[in-house]
Design brief:
Elements lengths: L2 H20 L1 E3 L4 E3 L3 H10 L1 H20 L5 H21 L6 H30 L4 H5 L2 H31 L3
Antiparallel strand pairs: 1-2
Helix pairs in contact: 1-2, 1-3, 2-3, 2-4, 2-7, 3-4, 4-5, 5-7
Length: 174
């Protein structure tokens, strides 16, 4: 791994942690956040391994800041890692040259995956800690899916515009 790539991953991890902490609106069991953007960018630039690392490490930092280390911390970081891995694997499959349509599609797929994984983790966490209620865990799944698809679509349109200047900076490409 090159120094530039390692530093870029570290910056994206820090951006994810900060954005997830400061730029998230909590609507009682439903979070609306722009925190996924650094994961998507890193995965689209470098592939599944970097996407996974950015998602896991950034989410871990966010969890530590927000809740500290708990028995379910590992579960809560899995969805962000999955997002990075899915997008990175698709970007690698496309030889890191995704169209806007492809980027929108893969960000929506990753968003639906993250929503499903977060729901499973919320269920497990609520059972372990004794706050389970069907309405809390599953009651807002439709709005969570809708908001996730809307945000993923916006990211899918935005990311292809961000990547060329980032590639020029990192790789010196014209």
């Amino acid at each position: 791994m090159s120094t530039k790539r390692l530093v870029t991953d570290a910056i994206l991890i820090a951006m994810y942690a900060v954005m997830s902490t400061l730029l998230t609106i909590n609507l009682g069991g439903m979070n609306i956040s722009v925190g996924a953007l650094p994961i998507i960018v890193g995965a689209a630039l470098f592939g599944p391994t970097d996407g996974l690392i950015i998602g896991l490490c950034g989410s871990f930092l966010n969890q530590m800041y927000s809740y500290g280390l708990t028995p379910t911390t590992v579960l809560w970081i899995i969805p962000a890692g999955a997002r990075g891995f899915i997008i990175g694997a698709f970007a690698k499959h496309c030889k890191f040259n995704m169209t806007v349509r492809q980027t929108v599609l893969i960000t929506i797929i990753s968003s639906l995956t993250v929503t499903a994984l977060n729901t499973v983790v919320m269920y497990i966490d609520s059972k372990i800690w004794g706050y389970y209620s069907y309405a809390y865990v599953f009651g807002k799944i439709i709005p969570r899916i809708i908001s996730g698809v809307i945000i993923a679509t916006l990211f899918g349109v935005l990311v292809p515009k961000l990547l060329p200047p980032l590639k020029r900076t990192i790789y010196g490409e014209k």
